[in-house]
């Protein structure tokens, strides 16, 4: 579909994990379909410090990025206000800026796309007579749970996590109670109500875009189309348009980590990273350090201060590094003992470049959806270590449905994973037949991902379909 006469605005929630998929969608619309895109970025006084590290140029002629006036919610939050509620508040506070920015644009957008935290912008789309879409840069399974949550809310008594039986969702893989998304963990918390409202609003758009593809989630996507219950709930098209993920961006210079990787044998290094916000407890960091050391496998580990350190500035600033340069939150002498084995990177690494390096053969990941897609598309098998949001669902899907990951016996959010279990998982991924079997499966997923995105592929066609609807609405 040639969308060269179309202009689409996309509203991006704050945080790297939200901004990255929006910029990827903007690039995709511009480069593949010729659409002009304006990205409206919600900013806060505490914008993520990593955003300058994001090597993701946007298509210069067609994609414009506009930072909305920073939102301030400190007067609204209490010490126990959870992340989802905070994000919904930020987006709510940003709405006046969204409205004024859109009304000041020379060329009024034909469609407004929001992510799932921005669904309260629906009336703005109506006000400016724009088509309205919601982009959930995650799995169809997560969206099924989100939309079905208002039904579960009526049917299920007590906390979801206390249920003895799996949570049933029509036509979809049932959900283990312990895997529910963060806002469903406590039904008495305000963020649960935000989530239920979000589920209700998702079906009021002209369509839902998902960062997945037909072959990866055929069962759930088919259920949306064919299951009678779903057809009565979701009367709008669901467009799987992925996997949109960051490409490798060679810039001529090599970081020290990539230079080190260049010297390692193929598939010999496990990459350990827990996303843009993932933090572990001090005890878990210690176990992980010993587990990696005991596995005797090569590693790159992106470390962040422990959760306790972040909450306690005095703890954080009073200690820095040991005599051999080991950060204070790793076991003493770790850098010396593992100098030949691995590299520790503080806070942020060029993940896409690392995952695409031939020396990397495994990824211990928090299962954020961007990281998961980057791993699948690089053909790197995973150790699933979910921490927050919808990551427990992602981990279960990777292990049970796709068979492309191993995971700890007990969720890392419930128990500290002990060093010997970590040693065993890393060895099984990097060393054994198990790892090789997983790698092979990854290869097939990678091929199906490429096919979906290419011209005439399922995701390409699905995005074209959405643009046709936008164009048709203009003519009415
Ligand atoms: N990322 C990175 N370097 C890091 C940590 C994260 O490049 O050290 C990128 C990663 O490649 C991914 C994104 O940040 O594209 C994280 O998104 P994801 O959905 O995986 O997790 P989130 O950070 O939202 O929990």
UniProtKB/TrEMBL annotation:
Transmembrane segments: none
Keywords associated with the record: Glycosyltransferase, Transferase
Source organism, top-level taxon: Eukaryota
SUPFAM superfamilies linked: UDP-Glycosyltransferase/glycogen phosphorylase
Top enzyme class: transferase
EC number: 2.4.1.-
Entries under InterPro entries matching the protein: UDP_glucos_trans (IPR002213), UDP_glycos_trans_CS (IPR035595)
A single GO molecular function term of this UniProt record: UDP-glycosyltransferase activity
Similarity annotation: Belongs to the UDP-glycosyltransferase family.
PANTHER family for the chain: GLYCOSYLTRANSFERASE-RELATED (PTHR48046:SF1), UDP-GLYCOSYLTRANSFERASE 72E1 (PTHR48046)
Protein name: Glycosyltransferase
Protein species of origin: Fraxinus pennsylvanica
């Amino acid at each position: 579909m040639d969308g060269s006469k179309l202009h689409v605005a996309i509203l991006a929630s704050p945080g790297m994990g939200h901004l990255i998929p929006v910029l990827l969608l903007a690039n995709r619309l511009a480069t593949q379909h010729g659409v002009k895109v304006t990205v409206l970025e919600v900013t806060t006084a505490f914008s993520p410090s990593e955003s300058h590290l994001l090597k993701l140029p946007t298509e210069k002629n067609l994609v414009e990025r506009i930072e909305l006036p920073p939102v301030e919610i400190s007067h609204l939050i209490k010490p126990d206000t959870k992340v989802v509620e905070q994000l919904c508040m930020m987006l709510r506070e940003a709405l006046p800026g969204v409205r004024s920015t859109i009304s000041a644009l020379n060329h009024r957008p034909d469609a407004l796309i929001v992510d799932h935290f921005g669904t309260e912008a629906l009336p703005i789309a109506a006000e400016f007579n724009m088509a309205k879409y919601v982009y959930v840069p995650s799995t169809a399974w997560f969206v099924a749970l989100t939309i079905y949550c208002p039904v579960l809310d009526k049917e299920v008594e007590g906390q979801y996590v206390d249920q003895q039986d799996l949570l049933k969702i029509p036509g979809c893989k049932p959900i283990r109670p312990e895997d529910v998304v963060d806002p469903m963990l406590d039904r008495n918390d305000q963020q649960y109500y935000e989530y239920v409202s979000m589920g209700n609003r998702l079906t009021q758009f002209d369509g839902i875009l998902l960062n997945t593809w037909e072959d990866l989630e055929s069962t759930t996507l088919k259920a949306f189309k064919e299951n009678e219950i779903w057809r009565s709930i979701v009367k709008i098209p669901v467009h799987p348009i992925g996997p949109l993920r960051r490409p490798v961006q060679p810039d001529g210079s090599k970081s020290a980590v990539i230079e080190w990787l260049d010297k390692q044998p193929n598939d010999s290094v496990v990459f350990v990273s827990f996303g843009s916000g993932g933090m572990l407890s001090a005890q878990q960091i210690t176990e992980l350090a010993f587990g990696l050391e005991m596995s005797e496998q090569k590693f790159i580990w992106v470390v962040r201060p422990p959760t306790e350190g972040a909450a306690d500035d005095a703890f954080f600033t009073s200690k820095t590094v040991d005599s051999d340069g080991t950060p204070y939150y790793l076991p003493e002498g770790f850098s010396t003992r593992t100098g030949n084995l691995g590299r520790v990177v503080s806070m942020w690494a060029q993940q896409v470049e690392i995952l695409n390096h031939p020396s990397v053969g495994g990824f211990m990941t928090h299962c954020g959806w961007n990281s998961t897609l980057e791993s699948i598309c690089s053909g790197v098998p995973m150790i699933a270590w979910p921490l927050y949001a919808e990551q427990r669902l992602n981990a279960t899907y990777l292990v049970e449905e796709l068979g492309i990951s191993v995971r700890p016996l007990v969720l890392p959010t419930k128990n500290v994973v002990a060093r010997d279990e970590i040693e065993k998982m890393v060895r099984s991924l990097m060393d054994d037949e198990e790892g090789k079997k997983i790698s092979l499966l990854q290869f097939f997923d990678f091929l199906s991902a490429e096919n979906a995105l290419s011209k005439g592929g399922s995701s390409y066609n699905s995005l074209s379909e959405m643009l046709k609807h936008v164009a048709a609405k203009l003519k009415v």
